[in-house]
Structure formats: structure tokens, C-alpha cells
Amino acid sequence: MTPDHPSAIPTPSPNCGDRRGGARPDMIVLHYTGMESCAAAHERLCDPGAEVSAHYLVSETGALWQLVPEAQRAWHAGAGHWAGVTDVNSRSIGIELVNTGNAPFPEPQMTVLEELMRGIMARWSIEAHRVIAHSDMAPARKSDPGPRFDWRRLALSGLSVWPEPADGGDFLGAARRFGYPPDATPEETLAAFRLRFRPWASGPVDATDAALAADLARRFPVDREASSA
Fold it and tell me: N or C terminus: fewer CB in 10 A for the chain?
């Protein structure tokens, strides 16, 4: 396998296939490994019995492995959906970051991630609002990349988006217009939204949640018919 990113170490995983229906990637999904070591995560992502993979694995020190070619479908997203897309694996590139979920993401890891994302987004014309957390698309069962991940840093570099307060209203409706799954409960949607944008917040939905969601819905509304797959 020739790596898509020049500094990636190619270590092919058997857990991949063709993208269904001729789909092209138009999303990036970020994950944490949730495992004790990089070696354990790498082994699992390449284990045919595990039936999971990702396109890339980034260690805490910034080492980068490519496990699946970008043109192929990796098995990282599982059940869930985002912005009307139900087969997220066929429409996304998955990046696993070595992290237990409770630790900060080190500078070398973030620097390599940003460089990697710039290349992916340029190659596939992926827009910043299509970079999402695993928890965004599967709020009932996933929490990665977790509360310690610096989404605002990515947004300041044009690699993701960050909300600014707008006129509020219906939090749940606005969150779903931004892309959160319509079958997630209000509580699950709020938890996922806060995990990404307000990890310090607690308690019931409030005016700030509604204002931030309204801004995202206004700037990045979902055309579900155009994006469904």
C-alpha cells in the first residue's frame, strides 16, 4: 500500500472494503483509541477478528500509521448517522488518536493531526463543518474523542467549526438541523453537544446551549435529501 500521506507508515489492515454505491469521502470522524497503549490499539485495528479499523492511527508522540487507503471504506464509525448520512463509513475518513479518554492530547500528536487533516481535506474537498466527533454521530453509545480534545484549536486553524452565540430558541431542533441524529433522545443530543462544545457545562439545557446550536444551524444547515446515504 502506498500511503496517501507522505509521512504515514503503511501497515495495511484487512478490515476494509469498497465504499458502497460509489461514495466518496466528504467527512472526517475523529476518535480516541481508549486503550492502554499505542501498540495494543494498532494490533486491534489490524486484527481480522476485531472487525474494526481506521484509515489512520496517530500516537501521542506524533507517529503516524496508515491502515486503510483513503479511497477504501474503513470500519470505524459503526451504527449511527450524521446529517442524514446513515452509512458514515462509506462517506468518511476515520482517524484514531491514541488516548485513554482521560488525558490531554499532546502537542506532537495535535500537530501531526492538523497536518494530516489539511491534506485529507484538500484531497477530497472536505469542508470544515464535516469534521465531526464519533460522539456526534453516535451520541447514545460513544464519547470519543472526549472532553479533553481541543475542538476550538482545530476551528481556529480552519479544520473544524466553532459556534458563536446567536438568538436562541429550540435547542433540539437547532442541533438536529446542524446534523445530530433525529433518533437520539434530547438528553443524548445535549450530552454529545456539550461534550464537543461545552464540556464544562452541566444540568438541564440552557440558553447558551440553544444560542450556540442556533448559530451552527444557521451557518451549516443540513440538506438531508442531498446528503442522505
Answer: N
